[in-house]
Amino acid sequence: MKCTETKLPGVYVIEPKIFKDHRGFFLESYQAEKYREAGIRETFVQDNHSASMQGTLRGLHLQMPRSQGKLLRVLDGEIYDVAVDVRKGSPHFGEWVAVTLSSDNFKQLYVPPGMAHGFCVVSDQAQVEYKCTDYYYPEDEISVMWNDPDLAIPWPTQNPILSVKDKAGVPLKELMDQLPTYKEVVS
């Protein structure tokens, strides 16, 4: 597999080795030792699977104090996937990276604990599966406003389909007392 760190330290794009032939394809979607060797050392404790229609935007989410790292991949369709550094004291605070993940390119994105994450469905529909480094605790959920002007993320839609929770997202600058410090989540 090829593992490339993005401009945000700790955020990786993973391209698994794909074996294709006349029958279809085979790939290892996860192998703990290979991911550890690439720099992703966390233990995953929960797998999630979502299906969404075109224009759906899920995010930007994080949990505190029980922060989750996420390893995402698309089983069907295509998404515009975004990680935002919201760790107070980080030299990259407020910066973001975006990657297109699809069932055609097989790429994965690793978002470490303490970063906000969200994605928008570009294809007619998309199924996303992701591994998490901690369990989901609804009381720890923080939702950053998807269209926060200070972040200026160029989402592929201006009128996304949002959940009630995501409609109530708050600008990053109003969440400062709830955000993790860089030292809390980087070991």
CATH superfamily: Jelly Rolls
Counted beta strands: 13
How many structural domains does the protein architecture include? 1
Order of helices and strands: EEEEHEEEEEEEEEHH
Shape: globular
Please give the CATH architecture: Sandwich
Number of helices: 3
Q: How are strands sequenced across the largest beta sheet?
A: 1-2-10-7-12-5
* SS content category: mainly beta
CATH uppermost class: Mainly Beta
Poorly predicted runs? none
In short:
8% of the residues lie in helices and 40% in strands. The chain is mostly beta strands. The relative contact order is 0.25.
Describe this entry's structure for a reader:
The chain is mainly beta and 187 residues long. The chain is built from 3 helices and 13 strands; from the N terminus they run ββββαβββββββββαα. The chain has a 6-stranded antiparallel β-sheet, with no helix packed on it. A 5-stranded antiparallel β-sheet has the order 9-8-11-6-13, with no helix packed on it. The mean pLDDT is 96.
Describe how the helices and strands are arranged.
Blueprint: E1 2-5, E2 12-15, E3 18-21, E4 24-27, H1 32-38, E5 46-53, E6 57-63, E7 70-76, E8 78-85, E9 96-102, E10 108-111, E11 115-121, E12 125-132, E13 141-143, H2 164-167, H3 182-185
Antiparallel strand pairs: 1-2, 2-10, 3-4, 5-12, 6-11, 6-13, 7-10, 7-12, 8-9, 8-11
Keywords:
single chain; 187 residues; mainly beta; Jelly Rolls; 6-stranded antiparallel sheet; 5-stranded antiparallel sheet
